[in-house]
Design brief:
2 copies of one chain form a homodimer. The first copy, chain A, is α/β, with parallel strands linked by helices. Chain A has 3 domains: about 45 residues, lambda repressor-like DNA-binding domains (434 Repressor (Amino-terminal Domain), Orthogonal Bundle), CATH 1.10.260; about 120 residues, 3-Layer(aba) Sandwich (Rossmann fold), CATH 3.40.50.2300; about 130 residues, Response regulator (Rossmann fold, 3-Layer(aba) Sandwich), CATH 3.40.50. In chain A, the strands form 3 sheets. Chain A has a 6-stranded parallel sheet with strand order 2-1-3-4-5-10, sandwiched between helices. The N terminus of chain A is likely disordered. Chains A and B meet through helix 4, helix 5, strand 2, helix 6 and helix 13 of A and helix 4, helix 5, strand 2, helix 6 and helix 13 of B. Strand 2 of chain A pairs antiparallel with strand 2 of chain B, so a sheet runs across the interface. Chain B binds a DNA duplex through helix 2 and helix 4.
DNA sequence: CGCTCCTTTGGTACCGGTTACATAAACCGG
DNA sequence: CCGGTTTATGTAACCGGTACCAAAGGAGCG
């Protein structure tokens, strides 16, 4: 009832349309803010008749509760973050999608951060960590100490495709066995001299693929290359090494760290008159959409599932699960297409 | 100084590690919260010596300001949202990336929401609107009245690839002229009987492409199909109509509403022994990565730029720009590859 | 030496919700 | 008709910052 002209300091501000708050609703409905709040949250401690009055007031004033006020009071953001290098490849998009899907189901919004080698990535991740209840971090985005700092602040973290860090869950896909199965398949084709394209230093995944690659070759008694052909993850990176490859004498196969590399390489080779798989076989990794159309032999990873798994792990932590960190490993699958050569059955060894 | 034991109700809460607040820092540094706040925000009204003490306290207590408290006081989220149907195609991923890139540069986080025909999409969008300072909404995600509601609440909205709504900016790509240029190119190939694959009801973009398609055919005096062959936007949708097409007598060309449709169709046709472009030509739209490897003639859209543009428009509105809504149209570009047949020069008309 | 003016700092009322605790009203068996 | 519950509501203290206003201390000046 009291319309006591508020006389405190700090009145207007954004001059814009006044926001209707829970107190306005309370006044309008002739009840206290506590009752409005209870009605809002569906507490059963509100008399039906009162609830009706409150609902009417809410309707009439077109009131929408402020997420900020609510979050501050509840001390939770109801939001998760995810950090990835970029979204230009199809790879991360799938992971993000799986993550978003599960997070949304659990009632959490998703904040994304693409680091795309911004120099300020570290600070941006720390900032993001302050806006969420949990954070998923992809490999090769930020330094370990940044992740450690986030963990230290008490924000649950799940790592994806990245070496483990104390106190954080992780989700990875299997690489060593998969790489070995690629090599075995290529050996069955009769291929012997194999090169590996990619930089193991850049990523845990690549390092493991490289290790599996070497291991399988060694086990088969085949020639094991000393080192990889260094390259990034983009089509351009693949194209760039084509000349070097042809000049240095072609191997039988080039096993690439991902599909984009493989595809870029294949096109660049073709421009130099080198045919795939005729003159050299090529394999990729990820099984992106373009790989299907380019007939690229590759390894399929359950990317969507990886994102979904990460979201669920985070949810558990946020909900108070204090058990030992989990480290999930998802299985991968060899996908044979024509880029590794005609099928052994059809071609004499 | 006064350590007055706080005796109010409501003490502990999440029992977890206590959060250090600005008041702790103030006490520790022997100054007031106002001074700490000023030091935090880099105000020049703080004596260097004082600032040093404050910084030391912050360091010592490992204090991190709460984004929530700050946002509530500043009445801004420092975050933008973006709503899209899904992220599985390469299309939206690019747009989101462009959006995120600009938003991050402007100091805003990005909240994503993928509606993927969830029945609760409307509420989710309204919820999202309460967590951001501005919202970008893609076509075919939520109903017009939901968007209107968001606008009405005072949250700036920019629409992407969607018909205009009062009070909201929009960014689209050019469709009519581009569709006409596709048709003209196909006519130059000697193709006459053309079909259009896609559902104009689903999307403004498709409707415009269909209109441009018909217009160009009519203008050339060629046969204008009565209706489109309805289809969604996925490879499956394209594959599904292959049988129907071959059964009904093949046209010279199938112009598809997007690349995924075109690619799915092409593969399904091949399985039925129908060759592209030998037996029928096919064109797509978007120029996704796979289109390059499949040799698909298509229309390239500046997807990244669309996202970036949307982020900038929003920033202007959030910063208080109250001018008339803007409606940007980005130009597109025909990309000719082999799926529309041998080049006219090489093939007699 | 007294008096402005300027630089720093402190006190405190917000931002918009939630909820512990107190209180009042309604219900109940004896 | 009364003490004891149970149910419904109000009061006010938080959540963790920001910024307005006032005031204290120093410098500069006549």
């Amino acid at each position: 009832m009291e319309d006591a002209e508020p006389k405190g300091p700090q009145r207007r501000r954004t001059a814009g349309r006044a926001n209707v708050t829970i107190r306005d609703v309370a006044r309008h409905a002739g009840v206290s803010v506590a009752t409005v709040s209870r009605a809002l949250r569906g507490s059963d401690l509100v008399h039906p008749a009162t609830r009706e009055r409150v609902d009417a007031a809410i309707e009439e004033l077109r009131f929408t509760p402020s997420q900020l006020g609510r979050s501050l009071a509840e001390r939770r953001h109801a939001a998760n973050g995810i950090v990835f290098p970029d979204l230009s490849g199809p790879f991360y998009a799938e992971v993000v999608l799986g993550y978003e899907e599960v997070a949304a189901t659990l009632g959490r919004s998703v904040l994304i951060l693409s680091t795309q080698n911004r120099e300020s990535a570290d600070e941006m991740v720390l900032d993001l960590a302050g806006r969420v209840d949990g954070l998923a971090v992809f490999g090769r985005t930020v330094h370990d100490d940044v992740v450690a700092e986030v963990v230290q602040r008490g924000v649950p973290v799940v790592l994806m495709a990245r070496t483990e860090i104390a106190g954080a869950d992780s989700v990875r896909t299997e690489n060593v066995v998969a790489a070995a199965s690629v090599v075995d398949h290529l050996l069955a084709h009769g291929h012997r001299r194999m090169a590996f394209l990619g930089d193991p230093v850049d990523s845990t995944d690549v390092a493991e693929r490289w290790a599996g690659f070497r291991g399988a070759l060694a086990q088969a008694g085949a020639e094991v290359p000393e080192r990889t052909i260094p390259a990034g993850f983009k089509e351009d990176d693949g194209a760039r090494v084509a000349a070097e490859l042809t000049a240095g004498g072609l191997p039988d196969v080039v096993v690439c760290a991902n599909d984009e590399l493989a595809l870029g390489l294949t096109v660049a080779l073709a421009e130099q008159g080198v045919q795939v798989p005729g003159d050299v076989a090529v394999t990729g990794w990820d099984d992106v959409m373009a790989a299907r159309y380019a007939g690229l032999t590759t390894v399929r990873q359950p990317m969507r599932e990886m994102g979904a798994r990460a979201a669920r792990l985070l949810d558990a932590r946020i909900s108070g699960d204090h058990s030992e960190p989990r480290h999930d490993v998802l299985t991968t699958q060899l996908v044979v297409r024509r880029s590794c050569g005609p099928h052994p059955k059809e071609a004499p060894r």
